[in-house]
Structures are given as structure tokens and as C-alpha cells.
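Read as amino acids, C-alpha cells; as here:

___
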Amino acid sequence: MAAGTPAALSLASSSSCPNFLHPRRFPLPSKVSGLPRAALAEAKSVPALRGDASGGLAGNGEYGIQVADAAPILSIRSRMDRASDIQAEARAMTRAVNSFVYTPELLSARYGSRPIKVLQRTVEILTALGNFAFKLFLDQRQGLLEQRKRIRAVELRRIFTRLGPTFVKIGQGLSTRPDICPPEYLDELSELQDALPTFPDAEAFACIERELGLPLEAIFSSTSPSPIAAASLGQVYKAQLRLSGELVAVKVQRPNIEEAIGLDFFLLRGLGFLINKYVDVVSSDVVALIDEFARRVYQELNYVQEGQNARRFKKLYADKADVLVPDIFWDYTSAKVLTMDWVDGIKLNQQEAIEKQGLKVLELVNIGIQCSLRQLLEYGYFHADPHPGNLLATPDGRLAFIDFGMMSETPEQARLAIIGHVVHLVNRDYEAMARDYYDLDFLSPDVDVSPIVPALRNFFDDALNATVSELNFKTIVNGLGAVLYEYPFNVPAYYALILRSLTVLEGLAIYADPNFKVLAASYPYFAKRLLTDPNPYLRDALIELLFKDGRFRWNRLENLLVQGRKDKDFTAKDALQPILKLLLDPEGEELRVLVVKESVYATEAIVFGSMSDAFNSIPQPVRSLIFNSNGNGPLNISDAERERMLQLRDRVFRTWSLLRSSDNFDPSLLQPILQVLQEPEARILGGRVVGGITQRFAARLLQQVLRTPVTAATPL
């Protein structure tokens, strides 16, 4: 591919130069002015760099830098303070001030007076999609619709590719909607990531010069001879900054893309009006859905917005040492050009290449899952397009996130409801699961969920033959997709993107380990949140998980502690204090009754279990002599009850042992707990526990005196 024509190098006036590129501050070598652009594109690769400049958007290492072996380089950006960075971002925003913003009125004004162009595009679209629809009709008439579903899915993907960026985006959107598309179509449409061919380098380089107001040679000392990657809206080059020597990835927008997608959305809105007016079976406002989709696509066309997305993502999630987010070079960024750190890495689906670097795919996928859970359920701001090309394994074992054009947010109510939904799934409480769909905004409040409960029960009773952690996430998505397809669900865009995100990560892991389960990898995070988060919704979910029919399920608490300890951020202190505060809450009377009961049972189990152990430690002849051959010694209890108490005693001890053996356990964490226990409510609760224990022991003593079976007393 041609790299471009020779061009003389001359710096623009100070008004068109980024501040730190002014020629009086950083004069360029005079020899550079004679270099043709082709020479720049084919320049010898630069020495490797180390540090945060490591990286690349394409990930095969061909142009990559070796992070571990290179000497550190102090970049110009590292000497710029935050104020300078804000100023650079402001200048980038100024360059993007005239970027196209989606409004239906502007589309109508632009294309309403161009009937010939509209007619030509309409014929092109109708011919392609009409031919596809006719094939589906024939398949149905011949009874081959199911048999040919995969073939038709491939054809639809190719049609979307030929029709251009708008339909590629539509295909990508449909690939996340199990409530709309069958699994075969979901699989095929998910491949629409790099579906379009590249455009000429000369046009890309001209766009860079036009957007940044500088000759290409004034900015870069070299660029890759061809694009490193190409997608629906743009393509990426690797380059070296002339002044600092840093390696960067430069994303350039496709020429005239606004014209192409604008015309398509104009036509789609017209179709939406017809559907709203004449198709009664569709209850949603189709025009509103098209407008929302169009706004998302147009946001992706503003690369300054994408840079701001990357900055926000880095601030929220790159605090973890194993997550890498590239920095943005604001002085080389505009609405149509985005320049960021080059990330040297390997695509996450290239298992063999990753293992040659001494890395493990499963460890990297687990990093991605933990980061995704934080995105989805902690802050709610998440990377909505985590396909393998956007997730890279760096040589030092970090997971790099790139391409921040498509981001989404999970509402707080939905974040909590998702965690609650997992609790209800563990408990097999299908009625509660169905009610969760109100909080998740799947159903309007006037929809009756009772018909949905049997469908959930039929699916999950079959799927839950194993534990929840053993479920395959894609199986759940497909099963839920079938339920969603049958009932009047309205799946929010954020939820469809969540499903897509986690399904992609599990699919990557399955390449390395066919038995990998994303829910098993996610469980430590859920356990940590349930044990440590003071949010009232999650506290109620924890109570629901731990108590059943008035009894405390110690095995559940033990399992939560075992799983929670696997999360790096789990601390025993965080797990204990919120529970105590909940107990002392004025509205916690129902919980206090349950806790008093269980405290009595646990104390009894510890005391009588220890007495039983002491009895068993006495030699047999002595036991027979003292207790007249009574196998239970001084305790007149059945073998079954004795076994129950020993099991409960052992579970209590194991739970305490798990807390004590936490990596960050410190006896001083008990100090704030003791302070809480000094509060009047705690003293009252303690008195009730002591009273219950006294009653229980009195009943036991009376049993020993009368030598009659004891009934299960209910502590007050």
C-alpha cells in the first residue's frame, strides 16, 4: 500500500502548533525537511523502550517494544504537570468543537432534499436485505429454517459487511441481544469486529495533517508502512513521536464516514416511523431506539470523547498493578485522530504466543474477569467492547484494555440487583429471581411475573444439577435468552453488553481450559461484596443467603469466607464490623431474634461438644466405673443430637479459624468491635443471648435430673 508522496517539512505558525511544539522552543533538525513521507513510513524500527510507554494496539509484537530489557526513558509528558495536561485536553476539545453531533433534525435537513441519493441507497439496502429475507421465507416453506440457520447467519454477517459501517455496528449490537437473535446468529455476528477493509494511507496521513494542523513529518519520525489494525470506523498506525521518541498508536477515522452513516440513519428513522404506525405487534418506540443507537455511534466518531473515556477508565481501574490503560497524547488528538501510548502485547485469543512469553492465559482472563466485575458492579462504568482485539497480554504479565469508543454504565440499582440475583440463584428462589427483573428494568411494574417463574424453574433446575459455580456462563446466557425471547422482556442496553463482556471472557478462557467457568472465577468477588459491603440491599441479601427457616446456615458462611479470602481486597475486619452494626440497627429486630437463637445453639454445641470430647478422653474402664456404662457419660442425649452438636461446634471453630488465618488478620481489629459492643443496644442483645443460654442449660440440667428426652427449646 502506498505510503504517500514526498512532502517538504515546514513548521506551521505558532497559532497552529501545539504549545510544546513551538519551533523556538524545540527546533527540529534541518535534515528532516528533505525526507519524503515514504522514507518516514519505512524508517528503521526504533530502539525498545521500557515503562508506561510500552504498548500497542495491535498485539503481535512485530513492532513491539521489550518492556523488561529496555532502559527507562524520561518522557516529556512525565515532566508536564496536571495543569498542562488539562490545557492540552482543552486544546483537543477545541479542535473537536465542530465534530458532528447526532440530531434527527439535522439529518432531515441534510438528506430530505436529496431524493436521488436517498433512493439509490434505499435500493442497495432493500436489494441486499430483501434477498436475505426471501431466502428465509423459502427455508420456512421448505421446513429447513432450523437446519440452515447457521448458513443464513453467515450470509447476514457478509451482507452487513458489504453495506458498510452502519450495518456493521447494527450487527455488533445484535450480537449482544440474546432476546432478539438465536445463538447461531449471536456467534456469527460477534465476528463483526474487524469486518471492513482498510482505506488508503495517503488519505489517513492527509487526515492527520488536516486535523492537527501540522505536516506529518513534524509530528512523527516514523510510521508503520500500513495500518496495524482496521475496524468499522477507523484504522490504526504505529508511529514514533519526533520530539520525545515515544512509540504511539494513532487511530485515524475513515473518510466521509459521517456522510455514510448519516444517510443510513436517515433511512432507518423513516423505517422506524412506518413500524410505529403500522406494526402493532411491536410495542416499543422503534424511532426512539434508533435515535439512541445513532447517538452511541456518533459518540464513537468523536475521538476526543474516546480519549476522555480512556482517562476516566484509567482513573477508576488502573489502580491495580495487573491492569494497564494507555495514556492519551492530547496535543496529537482531535475529533478524527486519536494518539495514545503504544501497548506492546498479544491478543488474548493467541494462546500459543502468550505461553511463549511465559504467561498463562487463564491468569490473564481472571484479571479481566475481576476487573470487569469491578466495572460492572462497583463503579458501573464499563468497557462495553472487550473482544480479543481490545484485550492484550503485555510481556510483564499485565492485561491491557484498549479502544474506549464503546463504553456504558450500569445504574446503581441494577448493580445491587445483579448481586441479589446471584443470591437468589444460589437459593433457587425463582419467585425472587423473577421479581429482580423489576429492579433490573427488564419489566415494567404492571407486568405479572408469575408465568415467568415456571420457565426459570424448568431451566435452572436442569442447569443446577451441579453447584452454581460449576455453571457455564454461555449456557446460562442461552437459557435465559430463550426465556427472554418467550416473554415480554425489554432488555436494557447495559445488560446486553454485560452478557457480551463476560461471555467473551469465558470463551477466551475455554480455549485454554475447556472446564473453565466464569461464575466460579467470579464467586470470590461476590462473596467479598456480600461479606464486606455495608449497603442495606446487600446486607439483606447476605441475611437471605445465611438464614433459612429460622436457622443459620454455617456451611454458607464458611463457603463465603473460603471464597472471599481468594479476593485480594478481602479483609477480616471489613467482614466483621458491618455485620455487628447491622445487628444493632433499630430495624434489625427480626435478625436479632435469629442471631440470639443461633448464639444459644452454638454456645450449647461448644460447651456440650467439649464435655463430650472430655468424656471420650477418659479411659474406657474408668468411664464404665463412674458413669455405670452410660455411653454418653453425664449427657442424656441421643447419638443423632450429639452428632449434630459436634458438627455445629466444628463449623463454628472452622469459621473462626478462617477469619484468623486471613492474610491480613490482626488481633487489633477486635478493638472497634469491642467498642461497638459497649453500645446500649449491644448490651441488651448480649443480655438476651445470656438469657437464652441460661434457659437452654436449665432445660438440659432438668433433663439430666429426670432422665427424659429433652424437647428442642426455643430461646427467647
User: Anything to note?
Assistant: Confidence is low (pLDDT under 50) at residues 1-74, 708-716.
